């Protein structure tokens, strides 16, 4: 339930074509709304991570809770581009940011042996939200219209976040003193290369979530409702990818799992360019969802595995989140600009996203090599 709020981000492919048609704006313009939403989800991590370590988790969660609900209800009243940008892009983005990093950091402190699996189960909420929210839009948009469909989503968020607020709390004593940014972490080359790899991977990983439904309509000519079904398949199989790889990571190591996840996801992005039928797109989405779900869920898990001191989990996660936020901010507008420059063709954007993921995998390989050398355990080291 904690991570279900980011399901609205994985569901932005529902809003992308609707806003483009309603506001008569280019897809690259609309993508800025979703990009800023996911940008703030990660960007405030440096601040919220350190505040979590200092013992202010409950206050951060309450503020995020308020911003998410207010932003969602405000979105239902929006009529212009700047209104959607402020309500959904900034208000909801900040709200999600005040919840996401503190929640992941707090959950990681509860587990030692099965930490990756526990965080994967928490991350599966994102895929659940990615199923629930498009389904709500699919059913309610034609019958009651956009405003009440969004309000229905707001009520779902109110309930799920309310339950999470009742049960989730800090476990370890607060660390009041300490810098906002732990610069010494970047002297650990495995940490730096892991963050670099995550930046590259997240530059391309959200492309399908934003543009898959639009691709189904623009290139394959399917209906709006049918295009949402493709997005549902993508998010549905993502739940599998957020749990199974994390279970394997507990046994073989986080980087050992993250390397093939990013590599295969990048190759799958190239394969998307060859899809020319609706059936093929559904099959591709079902497979891609598993691999990309793993890339997303393993990101905080890998960072957590590199931090031996639980009282520093929030700070180190937050620093990496802030860096990665700039990849999520620019990735989709860059892809949209490439599509526009190619006259509506998607192959260039697909190649861009796939290349970013493959480069991210290469950086993960370097990070693992450095970590394994430090442990003097060789390439088979559990890292």
UniProtKB/TrEMBL annotation:
Sequence ranges assigned to domain Major facilitator superfamily (MFS) profile in this UniProt record: 1-383
Matches recorded under InterPro entries: MFS, MFS_dom, MFS_trans_sf, Proton-linked_MCT
Keywords: Glycoprotein, Membrane, Transmembrane, Transmembrane helix
Bilayer-crossing regions: 30-48, 60-77, 83-105, 117-136, 148-170, 191-213, 252-275, 281-305, 317-339, 351-370
Superkingdom of source: Eukaryota
Keyword DNA repair found: no
Signal peptide: none
GO annotation, cellular component aspect: membrane
Membrane topology: Multi-pass membrane protein
UniProt subcellular location: Membrane
Keyword flag Transmembrane: yes
Family: Belongs to the major facilitator superfamily. Monocarboxylate porter (TC 2.A.1.13) family.
Protein known as: Major facilitator superfamily (MFS) profile domain-containing protein
Origin organism lineage: Eukaryota, Fungi, Dikarya, Ascomycota, Pezizomycotina
